[in-house]
Specification:
This protein is an alpha+beta fold and 178 residues long. The chain has helices spanning 2-23, 28-53, 60-87, 90-109, 148-167; strands spanning 112-121, 127-136, 174-177. The protein is elongated.
């Protein structure tokens, strides 16, 4: 009988406090959120003694905190895995491959066939060095009176400058070989 009276007193106190909380909400827009919170607390307050009567040992709040502990532990494990992922350089390698693909597109749009690209990044993910091996796409040109080698070298320099301005790095960090 004392258990029922204690539960009734606790429930009455919770209902009184939550009713005051609901009625003193500052804005009408917030009342529905507060009402939802109040209803959840009421259900927990009602269900807690029923679980004890049905033979479920332990406090409901203790079970909730136990579950939240395991969820927090799982979150920490996932964070550790992310740090390991970043620490092993996977992110750097992925970023280097993305830059290599971009450089390949830039070179192909300038009329070159890309044989190989190599990009290395520093600790701050800035381009440290870039090597590009190209081959001129086969296009027949008829040039009268000009040196085509000088023109091709100018195209390579223009491509190097284009890549340097695209990535905002110095042209000295880019090595282009034919």
């Amino acid at each position: 009988m004392e258990g029922i009276l204690g539960w009734l007193k606790n429930y009455s106190l919770v209902v009184l406090l939550l009713t005051v909380l609901t009625q003193t909400a500052a804005k009408k827009e917030y009342r529905r959120y507060i009402q939802l919170f109040v209803e959840i607390i009421w259900v927990i307050t009602l269900v807690n003694p029923l679980l004890a009567v049905l033979g479920k040992n332990g406090d409901l709040f203790e079970k909730i905190s136990y579950d939240s502990f395991w969820q927090g532990l799982e979150s920490i494990k996932m964070d550790r895995e992310k740090l390991d992922f970043l620490d092993e350089g996977y992110y750097v390698k992925y970023y280097e491959r993305a830059i290599e693909a971009d450089v390949k597109l830039l070179a192909e749009n300038s009329g070159y066939e890309v044989i190989q690209t190599t990009v290395s990044l520093d600790e701050e993910y800035g381009v440290e060095e870039m090597e590009i091996q190209l081959k001129k796409q086969k296009v027949k040109k008829v040039v009268i009176g000009e040196d085509t080698k000088r023109e091709e070298r100018g195209e390579l320099l223009a491509l190097r400058d284009k890549i340097a301005s695209y990535y905002q790095i110095g042209a000295d960090k880019i090595s282009i070989r034919e």
